Each structure stands twice: as structure tokens, then as C-alpha cells.
## 1
Amino acid sequence: MRSSLAFLFLVSFLPACSGGPGPSEPPSGDGPDKPDEAVALVCDLMRAACERQVACGHPFINNTPGDVDACLEAQRCETVSDVLTSPDVVVDPAAVANCVAAIEVASCGALAAQGLGIDPSCAHYVVGTRAEGESCRGGTVSDCAAGLSCAFEGDTCPGTCTRAPERCSEGSCGANAFCASDGTCKDRASIGEACDETLLDFENLRDDPCVAGAHCEAFVCVANLDAGAACAGANLHACGEGAACLCADPANCASDADYACRPARAEGEPCNMALDCNEGLYCNFGDEGRCAKRGGPGAACGDSYGACQHPLTCVDGACAGEEPLIADLPLLEEGQSCVESGACPLGMACTCDNEGCTEKRCLPAPGLGASCQEQMLANITPFACAEGLCDLLAGYTCVLPAAAGEPCPVDGLTLACASLVCIGGKCASAEQTRCEE
């Protein structure tokens, strides 16, 4: 089963920040020299992906049922123009061509499993051009060339394009740092200091950009909530270490008033989400929703989010690194059981079919504006909505990633924005995600 949260930067259609595999040198001067030509290239790639998705009948870039045009509209490919306002970010025509070719030859099961992670070119068709040692300003899409990341010393700007060292892992950064999404350890901020949740790797369940006793809220570190405080709708880490936002009875949570900061569940206790469980544990839905130990290399695992320690993922039933590539997913039909994993058809989502979620079936997915939290209990995936994405980062609502300047419901990190960031009720531009020199 693919790692859905690591895939978020792809499914929001903006490419992942540079730092993974890709061309070692910036694109040469033969790329498109006009923004509209670059946008056309990206939209052509997305059309090719949509054509393949419709032919397969199963989602791998969005879950929109219907024709190719509906799929393409949901991709909002034109919003890439916002990223390209930077003179240091370009579209690589060769990467676009390679990505299209990879999509066209891949099996439907492999696309359902890996999506646009099917080939490194699909993660790096929009790339920075600044070389190793040059200054950089970071951002949702880095201005450094592929294979480099923008490293900052403290709060200074600009940073420096740096070859990434060996990637950090869960717990390897110590008490005063966290393992960021670019694979490097970064210092935690104190209460009242600026913080940036976009730097988090969401598969590192308990990491936080703030010091112990604090969490990041609206880009500032604030004190955690007290024990017993109401927490419905709060940041996932707001209750602090050893605690979680829980209702007293996991099987009967009727309203927001039932949720309060309580001691996190111990091994073997019932749970609804991974963060309901104490550190080192996850919520194992293969065991009727009970907290279990997260696995190391080679440990048995299932579909439940967090089953493997970061940065491991569950591959063919065992916790492993990035290799080998994830195998094809079974292609399911409406009403078919998805307990053993598999890709539900377009417009469907794996949904709990009994109280303990031991039975799951492919059922109609919720529409835009509707809650997708119920689907998250069955399978952590951004493709739990019939259109757009399930906002795993803020509120579990079906959203269509909006362009810069368009309204967004929750400040902070959110899939409701193509830039992944909402500031003052409006989607941030790519420029706003970069530091100011």
C-alpha cells in the first residue's frame, strides 16, 4: 500500500520539494522561456495522467469520477503559474516527457499503488535552478536544483543550497531538534517563536517543530493545552507528550464536547487514530482498533497508518525502506471488501462497514465540503473524497486545492491550498512560502 502522507506534495499537484532522486544538474537553457508555455507543459502532463486514470477506472491523482476534462479541472494545473513567478524555478521539459512515458507504460495496479511516485521524473518536473553553494529562499517548491535542499542557519535568510546529508530517522535528532521532511534535523522553536509545520514529515508521528510543552499554531509556538481541556478541532499535538485528544469511549464519540485532553492510550487499548496512542505505538485497525507497537525493519505490518517507524513504510506486509518499489494494488469494485487493501473505483472510498471497522467496503465517497473523517478510520488517504482531496492536515474535509489569494478555511498547513499554506484566510502564494531576503 502506498504511503499516502508522503505522497501529499504530489497529489496537491505541486511537485515535491527538491531533495530526492532526479537530474543532478539544473535544466539547460532549452526549456520553455515563457510562463504560459511552461503551464501548458504541466497541463499536458496532467491531461495524460487523467486519460490514464479514466482508462484504469481507479484513482491515482484524484478521485473525481467521470471524463478526462472533469479530472483535469480538479487538478487545477494552471496554478503552477504561481510557482513559476520565481525566476529560479522552471519546468523541465525532459522530466515532463519522461513522466508521461512512465505513466503510459505503468500498469493500473502500479499507478494505484504509487501514483505520481511511479517515476522520479514525476516528482521533479518543476525544479529550482540554484546550484550547490548558491543562496536560496526555500519555499513549498525549493529554488535549489534537484538533489539539493535549502539549508538555513537559525532564522537567517537567505539559506544555502546544500547536498543533503544522510537522512534522519525517527528519534535520531535528539530532544531539541526534529526530523524534517527534507531528511535533516532542525532546531525546535521555543514558546512565542516562529514555527513552520510545513517542515514536518507527517510519518514521524510524534515530531513537532516546537520544544517540549508547546505546539505550532498559526506559525507560532504556543503552550500545550492542560489535561482535561476541550480539544476538538485543535492541532493534533495540542495536548502534548503522553496525551491525546480523546473521547472517554472510542466507540461512542457523538459530539465535539466528548473530546478532551486525556492520557494517550496504552498498548492493547482501543483507539480511533494513530495519535490516540502513546509514543512508539499506532492504532492497529487489523486488531479492531487497538494500540500496538510500531514496527522496525522487517516487522509485520498492515494498512494502518503509522505501523512502521519513520522513515520505514509497509511493503508487502513488512516494514522496509524505499526499495523495493511498492507492488501493484488489487483493483476493487463497488461494494467489494477492502480489508486486505486495494484500490476502490473512481468516486468510491474504502469505508468502515461495522462498528469496530473490522469490515470495510468500497462505498460512494463524500463530496466537496463534506467530512471525510469516517473514511480516514478505514484507510488514511487523501483520495477519500469523490472530488478534490481529503484535507488530512486540517479538519478532514473534502477540499479542492485553491490558487494563491483564494479563500481557505483554516490558517496554517492545509490541502485546501495548492501552496499547502493558508495565511489570514487566504491561500499563500509561492512567494509567501519563501523567506524574505
Note: The chain has a mean pLDDT of 83.
## 2
Amino acid sequence: MTTCLLENRSKKIIGRIREQKILKDLFDSKKAEFIAVYGRRRIGKTYLIKNFVDSVSTEFFHVTGIQKGTLGEQLGEFAKQLGVAFYKGASITSRRTWIKAFEDLTRAINEIPKDRKIILFFDELPWMATPRSKLLTALELYWNRYWVFDDRIKLIICGSATSWVIENIINNKGGLHNRVTRTIQLKPFTLYEVENFLKEHHIHLDHRQILDLYVVLGGVPLYWSFIQKGQSAHQCIDELCFQNDGPLIKEFDRLFQSLFNDPAPYIDLIRIIASHRYGIGQAELIAKSKFPGGGGTVRRLHQLEETGFITSLIPYGHKDKGIYYLVEDEYSLFYLYWIEPNLKTLTKKGLAEGFWLSQSKQPSWKSWVGYAFESICYKHIHQIRKALGIDPGAFIGTWRYVPRAQSAQEGAQVDLLFDRPDGVITICEIKCCDHPFAIDKSYAKNLLKKLEVFRKQTRTKKQLFLSMITTFGLKPTMYSEEIVTNQITLKDLFSS
């Protein structure tokens, strides 16, 4: 549940407590370690490693892959960094193969005093592994034959192409099988961590302002570094996304091009999913994608999920059937709905300053924030569970019932539920508004009907409790007092 970002001047890491402890334990271990760090682009992987290195005494070799670089360019950069790390910046002859390059690295390692620990950091390894480069073959050879027997070495590989790292390093079926000693997945900022990050930069926004930004930026550290002191949430959004020099206008294409060799099919898939705000079933999605062979589409969906763009859900009670997908990345969803339709105007002549201020007053934006708030709640399950006092062993999920066509039965959807080990199911209703939410007679009737449909269709015998998750709490009414067991507010989501 922890996240961090380096503040360039103070070198202070915000959050990432658990990840820092893992790195320290591995650094202090008495054996060689092979660590795989992964997470979506812009999440702060390199910041974490470089700042951890600054906190310990070690020899440090750091090489970063070159996006779309040739084998020669990758090896040239490797040789350059070899000179920087071990030979006081001296020029090192670039090798033609990774076998020879790692031979040079091993020779340099052997010249380091035996009491000095060594961190080898291969950043953006997927970019280094160009087609037919045999990088993985060389890595297998040198790890298994040399580096694993040198207790000083801590090898850290890192990549934004999460699916590549998982498939080729963590789940490697060849010479690197089971060689990774620890994995670290970096996740986006929580609301709590965003607030701390802003305070560290002397930016003070209230919870609702941060929420309005979060539904656009998500928890991506780099995006929050663009926020300017003294601007409201909507002023920031206008500047970042709707002025022709805004840093997030073309970020969507950059993201996909950096992660996938052929980004078009992945963009097509995320477009289809984004057009179904409450999710789309896997079978329907495969049919709509019109890509040859369902297996290839499923693999792309796994890759999109591993890189943090989408999430797959199986509704409560469906076991392994009924899987559906939602877009999880806030920025991608915002781009497709709000930025892209204005892209031609933005790139040609730009939009008038304050464009977003007028858009944010439209009912469509209010509806958008309401939907996005549900997604944010899913990412803050820990905070919700803690506020409700629910056992960590509770099953967490969603639920929906769609009756067959022509059926007289009513459908229902549960935003979030906790199936608890104490014989209770807590059903959560999520509502986002600018004021305390009032449950009137009509809304109360709908809530009670939802509980009735849920009990009937799931055939549960458990006690049902209804909890409300709202931005500013509930306005007391006779209905809220009668049917609501607990309530969570936006403030609760900002807890650690």
C-alpha cells in the first residue's frame, strides 16, 4: 500500500516504506541477490533505486536501455557507463555482443575490493533486449556461472514493460528459472501519499480539489510533479491537458509506444473497454475486437492488465466465469473521453485559456467524476476496510445481475461488497457529490430493492449490512437512519 517520489532538491523519499525495507534487507544479506522491479511508466522506479543507493555505501553500476535503440547503441551505452562506474569516466571500447560486454563487467567487478558491495542496476532492460541480441542468454550465463557466487553482488533489473519483465525474467522457463530472489511491484500513489507529496512541495489543496485532480492524473508521481502552487484543480487540468504545450496532451501515445512494439492493437482494446463505463465481458470484448484468434487477444489483455491500464473482475458468486474488464488508468480514460476529441484543435491552434473551467461545470463532468470515484474507491480498499473495521480475511468484490431479455425480473448492481468470515456481507453504495448526500424515499426504495435482488439471486443466508461511501457524508434523514449501517467519507480514503 506504499508509494514514493523523490523530491529532486531535498532527496526526500515520500512513502515506499515497505519497498525501502525490502531493498535494505536484500542489500544487507550475505548472498548475491537478483531483484526484479516493475511497474507502469512514470511511477518512480528509477527514483526509488537511485535514492536507495544514495543511502548506502556501495559500488554502483547503472545502465539504462535506449528506447528503440539498436544493438550497437545499447552496447555503446553499456560501455560508456562501465567507464563511468569503474574507470573514472575513461572511454571503454564497445563490444559487439552481450557475452563480451558482461565479460568486461565481470572483470571490473573482480577488481573491486572484496569488502565492497556492488549494485548492478539494469534500468529499462526490455529496451536493452533488442531482437536477436541474445541479452537474456548472456544474462543467464553470467548470473549462473559467476555473479550468483559473488556475495557482494545485488543485481536489480527494472522495466516499465511489465509483461515483458514478468514473462522473461520473473517467470522465465530457461536458465533464469527461479533465479529472481525478490520482486518489487511499484504501485501508484494513494490519496494519502498524493497529499503528502503536495505538502512536501508546499502545495495545499483540500481533499475535494485533490480528488478532482486524481480522477485525471491517477496516482502517477510524474504527473503530480506538474502541479503548480496557487492553482485550483481545474486550472491545473486546463494547463496540463488543454493548452497546446501541455505536458499531458500527447502522453497517451508516448505511453503505448514505449511499452509495446506494435501499440495499435492494445490501443484498440483499451478504446473498446473505455466505451463500456461499467465494464465489458471478455467474450463480447473478443468479438468486438475482431482480432484473429481469441488467444492472442487474451494475451494482450493480460499485458494491458499487468502494465496497469485495465483491471479484470469476476463478480461475486461467479467463480471463474463472467470475467469482465474495466479501464483502471485514470489518465488513459480521461484522455480518450476528454482530450482526444479536442486534439485537432489543441495541436493546430490551441484552446482558449480557461476552456476546462467551462467544461467542468457541465453535467457530463459531474457524472464522470461520480464514476471515477467508484474506481478510486476500489484502489483504496485498505482504507475502506479499516474504516469499517472489517476483518482482513473478508472476500472483496463487486456484483451485478442482468436479467435475460424479456424477463420481468429486475437487475441490480453492487458497487463493492465485503463477504466477511463473521456471517455478514457488507454491501457498499458509492456516491460522489459536492454536498452531504440525502437519501430520500425513492432512493431508499431502490437500495432496499437492490438488497432484495442480491439476496434472492445469490441465495445467501448471511446478514446484509448496507454502508454508504460518499464524498461529504450523509445528510441525516429518516431513511438513512433506518437502512444505513455505516458510512465512509472522502476523508477516510485519505488515511494511511
Note: Confidence is low (pLDDT under 50) at residues 1-10.
## 3
Amino acid sequence: MTGQTPAALELDDIQRGVLSPRPTPYAATYILFRIDDRAHGRELMRRVSAVVTSAADTTSPLGETWVSVALTFHGLKALGVPREALETFAWEFRQGMAARAAALGDVGESGPENWETPLGTPEVHVVLVALAPDSARLEAAVDRARPAYHALPGITAIWRQDCHALPTETEPFGYRDGISHPAVEGSGFAGSNPLETPLKAGEFVLGYRDELGGVQAPRPEVLGRNGTYVVFRKLHQRVAAFRRYLRDNSTGGEDEELLAAKIMGRWRSGAPLALSPSRDDPGLGADRGRNNAFLYEQDDPMGFTTPGGCHIRRGNPRDAAVAGVPRLHRMIRRGTAYGPPLPEGVLRDDGAERGLMFAFVGAHPGRQFEFVQSEWMNDGVFFGAGDARDPVIGSNDGSGDFTIPQRPLRRRLRALPRFVVTRGGEYCFMPGLNALRWLGDLKD
């Protein structure tokens, strides 16, 4: 739909958690609630509408701090949203993540039968997320939100996960995280790749034109417009197993770091192989103006620099003409770490829970999150690698491999184990602020 003037986003009605990149460093918390009394649930919606931070509020007294609220399909039903409105939501959202487990590769030890209680159950109705640059400002944000649910006996807090930036400001496997963020037309938030054309707002916010020219939103308009879908996932990372695999399949320290870079597509510092193919460049990795400024198709179509099967190239093929148009499958991704870091050099698991809470934001859960998870992360057909899975987060079982293109002979890593186990998750709808007020004013 070229030639059209981008629609002005109604930022004061969009939750800031939809569009704003997370701060670095950060502290975060996720709190799940069950609605036991419909009237109290509606009162909760009225209260949180005054607490949630809008995308227009970029000058908060707490700085890069915000509170977001989302609801599961069971949560919307608990509030008494009319059936004719419920039926206008995306069918993946209506089914819920647990019902979609097989398509997502959440099987075996990652299956819903092994998830943390109450994740993936009808008990989860409301998700409150607070994010801040540090723990002091996070607690201030939670304190500000607490009156919204405090003293409502019909609202029960049933689960909480606290997250924090590790001292290294990396994710648990040791890589710099939170680098890639798409530019969204009309958002006012810059993307991290200056070579990427901003995406249509309708890819991430309901009620606006998307890359196909369509406008999607649940009905009535006051409920759907300026909302979005958010996929929350708790992922456990087997850090010791990852380190051992790198050590056992490399010839020494330098080769181990190169292998880690080839698997991820970036050196641990965040420097991309596309811009620093032969050695790490920590200065580049820390430079937000440069560390994501690259494409693939012109300079590296065969993956000799950045393997086609590596994690970041699977998750965002950028300008590659594979599996349809990559722009149709773009998401906003945010990861926040939980648990203590495994001390440097330790190769034996210490039994601690550690990993990432992930949030995937998009207006089309089927062709965004589910497509990427099933077709790009857990399959390799799109770039000619058969059934090969993502070497980092794929649902590997020890039978698969990972190929590194190189001359004269390619390098192949065999017997990839599962490094990441799903602990649970939810499909949620994150309403606009007007929608929160509408939900609060519902009548039976």
C-alpha cells in the first residue's frame, strides 16, 4: 500500500508496553490474577486504566518506567464480555497457548502437562507487567499499581515472576540481549536498524492498516482499536548444557567463541557476524547506532558469514526472500532474565531456575508468533535445511544437527540437545486505555 499517508497513531490510547523498547539495564515483574467476582473484575479494569502508562507518556517522573495490563480469553469471559464480541478475536488467542502447544513445539518436557501452575490454565485472567531501569523504580511502579487490585476480595494474585538485568547485562547464555527493535510508522520510537523501512502500524496495533493493506480489530471498535496481542512465555535455559556443548564441539577457546557466534548470529558482546565476521568487536556490540545496521541478501545470501540456520537469522531474515515476505512475520520481542547467573566457567548444572520471560507483541498472532515458532524456529524448509531446528531455542531432541557453511567443507554440529525448556505461557490481549474503561463499565 505504497503512496498512502501513514495514519497518526493515537498514542494516548495505546499502552506504552506495546511500542516502547525496554530500558537497559532493567528490572521487571509479572503478576497474574484470577477474577473470582465479575463486579470486582470490572472495578479492577476501571482502576488500572488510571495506572497504565500510555505510549504518549515519555516523560514519566519515574523515567523509563511503565505498567501494562493484558487479559487472557478466559479473563475477558470472566468480565462478561458479550459472546458476539469474543468471537471477533483471533482464533489462536481464543484457543490459548496450551491448546496450541503441539504446533509451537511445546511437547515432551516442554508440554503443558509440565508447565508451572497456573500457567496455561483457565485460572489466569489478568497479567500485570511493570518494567523500570532499576529495582527501586520498579517497586515504586508496583506500589503505584497496588491500590488498583488491593482490597478487592474478588481479585486473587496467583503467580508472580520477578526479573532483573544480570550483572553482565546479558541473557543467561551470555549474549547481549534486547538489540533488535522494529520501527513502527507513527509511533515516535526509532527502530534499531536504520536500513529497515518502518513497518505499518497495523502489524502491531489493531485498528490500523497493516503490510497487506487490511485493518484488523476485534469488535466493538472501542474494545479492539489501539489494542494488540501479546504472547508471554517463561523459558528455562540450560546454561551448563549449552556451555558443555560448545566446549565439546570446539577445538579451543577462540573456536568456542566463534562457534557460539555462529549458532547465535552474533558474538556474545552483541557484535553481529554480518559486520564483524572473524573476531568479536565489543565496541560495535555496545553501539546501539551500529550493532543492528545490516541486511543479508546482498552481502551474504548463502550464509557464509551469518549461517541461515542461526538463531537471529531465523527469527528475522530481514531482506531475504524466503517463506513469504519477512515483514509479514515481524514482531516486537522483549526478554527479561530471571534467576541467578551461573558463575563463569561452571559446566555443571547447579539446579537453579534461570532463563527468560519473553513477550512477543503483534496484531496477528497466527502469521507472526505462531508462524515464526513453527516454520522458522522448528523447521528449516524455508532456507533449504529440511527439518533442522533452531540451535538455541528449537525443540531439539538430540537427533538434529546444525550446519555452518564454509569453504572448502561445511561444518556440521550433530546431536543438538534441547537447551531451552518452556515452563509455561499465555496468549493475551492488551487493550487500549479507552477499552480498559469500557471493560470497567460493562453491565450484565
Note: The chain has a mean pLDDT of 95.
## 4
Amino acid sequence: MTITPHAKATKIDLFNFKTPQMRTFHLTWIAFFLCFFGWFGIAPLMVYVREELSLTKAQIGNIIIASVAITIFMRLLIGWLCDKIGPRIAYTFLLILGSIPVMSIGLADSYLSFLLLRLAIGAIGASFVITQYHTSVMFAPNIIGTANATTAGWGNLGGGVTQMVMPLIFGFFVAFGFTTGVSWRLAMVVPGIALFLMGILYYFGTQDTPGGNFKDIKETYPTFQGGKKNSLANFLLVIKDSRVWLLFLAYGACFGIELTINNIAALYYVDQFKLTPATAGLIAGLFGLMNLFARTLGGVFGDKFGIKWGLRGRVIWLSAALAGEGICLVLFSQMTSLVLAISSMIVFSLFVQMSEGATFSVVPFVNKKAIGAVSGIVGAGGNVGAVSAGFLFRGEMTYQNALLVIGVAVTISAFFALLVRFTMEEEKEVGEEMNKIIPQGEKKSELVTAS
């Protein structure tokens, strides 16, 4: 069989597991889902951790920051590694090594040991970069926004499911007679085991590109960018591109805020509305559950705007989604009624995740020779946003006021997104590639449910 790195899929056949493109599609989102499960598995159980370890508000704030801080550096590193060694091996190592601190956090017996293990767990947040990289090399421009948004969105769904499921796993151990202190520790072993097993499955179930792994393609196509020695030079070019940093800011304003809400939502509903941890976890989980379709919508609209108005259209859609997110967060921060708080949170969640999908409908077109580097830097922006927001929750400011400040900042970021520009040559190149894929009169993205 002829090996070619260019046979990208032009549609998504959800129930087709035979092609490498669709196997990658499904295994990437499942792997990312499990990473989210391990990353934020402890968040809905923090009520019990706070009680057992006698944590202060400032210490909880530090833990929130730690959970996302190391991911900044890991995303930068993993993006370069994807360009160098390929997404298959990168994901395998991250899943297997990441499972260790997830299971080990149950050994924490003080604020310091818990903080350090929470910091280590944050490394698995770099999985997002591999997910987006692997999807980007598997799908064509007409569908790339939808594919990226769907794999990331269904992976992010793990953040919502975790809020609901971890209290149930915790309750399972309590029902068997374990104390609350032992139960939250045992509960964290479950996502750790799942991550370890997924690492093995990913290695044997995927390949780097539609045409094979990096090693195979380099032997057949010496000009193929993946794994070339100039990957560091390409990384340096990416760093100099102002568009990358504008998208870095945009992603910080959406994914960074999602991470923040995942960390504080359960505590917010317990303290603000006097709910039980189990009930608060269920409500907080609604925020993440919107990923089932919301991030996909962001990618779908990004593709549609791109097909009709080119790369500039994708940027305009991103700006609009960010503006909607900021306004909705301001409204959510002012809600004193539980019903209105839940309702506004759901609408806010819709715009957060559409903004994420919109961002990564733009990312693959910034520098095609270094998709991993661009994805890594932009992805790290999400964690910088989360760290920045985390500082607001560790001081004297109330959670409500902190959310209000963040909402205003997100709204302002929408205007900066409009500064992302593409040259006429870049627009023309993508337009010509799109015309080869989609005949005139049939310009539409496809998300189908059967092969």
C-alpha cells in the first residue's frame, strides 16, 4: 500500500471504526475524556479534603492554581514533541505516566503533599494539545474545525461527568464502611487505572497520520514535516507570530475560564446556596455536560463562516462567541436565585465552549508546518487564563465579585481576537484547497452518523 501523509478525511462518519482517521477521532476524545476525569476527579470531593486537611481559603486557592499551572509548561513541551516524535507515542507516555500521581494523591496527608500531587496531576492537561494535533493531521480543511471541536468537546465532557460521578464513587466506598477520609482517597484510584489502560490502548489502536507513523512516512516522503530536525526552528517561527499570542489570549479567556469553573463550581454552590456536596456536584456537572454539543457547535460555525467568508470569517465568529461568553458570565455572577444561577450558568457554558471550538477552527491555519507548536502555545494560554483567574479566588474578594471581574475581562478579549489577520496568500491557499474538496454549490461541512 502506498504511504501518503495527505489522505485526510473530508467528513466524519461517527460509526465507522475501520479507517485510521475515525479510530483516531474516537480514541483521542476518549483519552482526553479520561484525562479530564483524572485531572478534576478530586474537585467535587474537595469539601471532604478541606475538612480532613483543615485547608484555608488561601490554601484552596493555591491548590486551584497548582492544578493548572504545570499544564502551561507541559503544553508547550508536548506541542513540540508532537511535531518531533508524533502524537501516538506522546499520548501513550502522557497517559501512563499521568496515571501515577492521580492514584498517588490518596497518599497525601498534609497541605503541602496534597499541593505537590495536585500540581503533578495537572501535567495530564497537556493531553488537549495531542488531541487537537492528532485530529488536525487526520481531517481536511472543510471539516477540521468540526473535528477538532468535537474531539475536544467530548473530551471536556469528562469535566462535567466527573462532577457527577466522583461523588457516586466516593459514596460507593462509604457504603462499604470506609470513612470519608479513606473513601476520597480510594475513589481517585479509579480514574488512575482508567488512564493507565487507555495508554496501552492508544499505542496499539492509533497511528500518527492517515498514511502511517512518522517513521514510515519519513522513509517514503523525506520532505514530510513531522519529525524533521527543523522542528525547533519552526517552533521559534511560531513564537514570533503575533497571531499565535492573540489566540493564546483568546483561549485563556474561554478554556481558562472553563478550568476555573470546574475547580470552584461545586464549592460555589455549597457555600453560596447551602447545598449538599452531592447536589452541588450534580449542578456543577451541568456546566461540563454542555460539551456534548456546545464545543462542536463552535467548530461547525467556524467551518461554515470559513467556507463562506474565508479565514477572516473564522476570526469574526471567534470574536462574537467570546463577547457572548463575557456578557453571560457577568450575568451569572450576579444571580442570587438558585434557578436563575443554574439557567445563566448553562447559557454561559454554551458560549464558553463555542468559543473554544471557534479558537481551534482558526489554529490549524496559522502555521501548517508546526501545528503542534501552535496548538501547544495556544493550549497553554488556556492554563495561563486559569492561573490568572485562580489568584482572584485566593484573596479577600468574594467568588461573585471574582466572577464579575473575569466576565468583564473576557468581554474585552473579544476585541483583541479581531486583530488576528491572515495574508491574501494564506486566504488564497486555503480557498484553493477548499475548492478541491467541495464542489461549487455544495459548500457545506459534513457531520454524518453512518458510514
Note: Strands lie at 12-13, 447-448.
